[in-house]
UniProtKB/TrEMBL annotation:
GO molecular function: DNA binding
Segments forming domain HTH hxlR-type: 5-110
Name by which UniProt lists this protein: Winged helix-turn-helix transcriptional regulator
Signal peptide per UniProt: none
Keyword hit for Transcription regulation: yes
PANTHER family recorded: TRANSCRIPTIONAL REGULATOR (PTHR33204:SF29), TRANSCRIPTIONAL REGULATOR, MARR FAMILY (PTHR33204)
Keywords: DNA-binding, Transcription, Transcription regulation
Organism, scientific name: Aminipila butyrica
PROSITE patterns: HTH_HXLR (PS51118)
Amino acid sequence: MDKRCIAKEYLGETGFSYTLSLINGKYKMTILYTLMEFSVVRFNEMKKYIGEISYKTLSSTLKELEADQLVHREEYPQIPPKVEYSLTERGKSLIPVLDFLCEWGENNRL
């Protein structure tokens, strides 16, 4: 078996790098976890659940996740406005990864 040579490889071309580009960010994994746990969540509910996140950061992070097709935004035409967020099928495909992270955390908590 040939040994891989780091001089011939580039991290940016790996699946790991691509995945990280989608979920990297201070709150992206937290938002994905929230939607995994509660399925459909309104903006203010998520803000309250996460706590320390600002409205601006939550809004921009949700927009990024939506642009990457991990989160679906459903807006209802009513007053006051009602907006709900949920995972897309693509976002749901991350659930096994999130579940494993949760399990690892429970098993390795100090």
